[in-house]
YeeE/YedE family protein
Amino acid sequence: MLLTGLALGIALGFTMQRGRFCVTGAFRDLWITGNTRWLTAFLIVVAVQSVGVFAMDAAGMITLAPRDFAWLATIIGAFVFGFAIVLAGGCATGTYYRAGEGLVGSWFALIFYALFAAMSKTGVFAPAVDGLRAVTVHASTIHGLLGLSPWILVAVLVTGVGLLARHHLARRPALPVAALPARKSGLAHLLFEKRWGAFSTALVIAVLAILAWPLSWATGRESGLGITGPSSALVNYLVGGDPQLIDWGVYLVVGILTGSFIAATGSGEFRVRLPDAVTTVRSIGGGALMGVGASLAGGCTIGNAMVDTATFGLQGWVSLVFMIIGTGAATRLFVTGPAKATAASLTPVRAGR
């Protein structure tokens, strides 16, 4: 059954690479252009998954158990994580699939992300992380806090996301993009050459996210998609060699890397690309901060912002908000701020009248 994690991971990595599903870009677009298209795609995953998760819970296939909300660690960790993904050039899954494309900068980010996640969960930083996560309130979900049926929130979420998607789909289509003649046909063309849309990619990812719940539970891992914990476990396995650390989640992250490599190779997009010195330093620093931030927050953009939000967990929605804020702070510092300063310095000074 563990191999189902590998299979689902391959499908997820393949889909994210071909669809260019970048959560970092979705958050960053809000601050640079105000565009919500990719954020809407991300929320489609959350909304569709939410329907599937609560249906499975109602059917007894899984059991959603409450847990206390580690509010302080979640806020700090989510902000740090959101800040870090701009430095690293991608979130946890984005780093995995870009590493599969041959981006050496993402290799550095991925290595240090997994290493610092392990250090934060079971290593030298664990006491500090555990101490912050011990600061909790006795609440776990939005519907539990409000005393509502979760299906009311599901209906609100699906309706809101549906209206957002309709808004984007109703806008005037962009000018056609020039493309080379197709070299493949049939399924090969669809999988490796045809441009994947943001919303269609989101629907595929949503289906995979739903499937992750029963497949993971069947192996004793009572959770859905998750990246940080498995990445930490993989590092600990490589260091200590304990085979009990290899669970469904570890197979999942290995599968994401494998699926991305298959997609990039099949589409001709795989190429080993070396970063410059500045990008290398930022990738390493961003990866390290991602590992610490995700451990503090209890999850990354997948485990928290995509999965826990689908169950209306307080940790998930608070994480999503502070990840976006953290991304905005880093964008202002490293993207829009320096760009404006550079543009201003290049503007010719006009002589006075």
